[in-house]
Write a structure and sequence with these properties.
Elements: H1 11-39, H2 50-69
Helix pairs in contact: 1-2
């Protein structure tokens, strides 16, 4: 699904950058959740987890918005996605 969002010429780079950016953001979420939990007075007995729950809800909403706004490429020529129709991924002079 992710590779269908990028033109043929930049498909590998686009997928890699998107994947690595997601991993970078997701990598800091446990640290952020731990900081929120510590700032709220710890998690003893599971009583002060409201801020972590809000963090999880915000990330979930962001993910849902990303899925909702993504393009559907079913039935389209993937060589033309994100580029000019008819280009077909060919470079000038070929």
């Amino acid at each position: 699904m992710l590779n269908e969002m990028f033109a043929t010429e930049v498909r590998s780079t686009g997928v890699s950058v998107a994947y690595q950016a997601g991993a970078l953001i997701a990598g800091f979420l446990p640290l952020t959740a731990g900081g929120l939990l510590a700032a709220a007075g710890g998690g003893g007995g599971g009583t002060n987890i409201g801020s972590v729950a809000v963090l999880v809800m915000v990330v979930s909403v962001l993910g849902a918005v990303a899925v909702w706004t993504g393009r559907e490429s079913r039935g389209s020529d993937l060589r033309e996605v994100g580029g000019e129709p008819g280009a077909g991924g060919q470079r000038p002079g070929r």
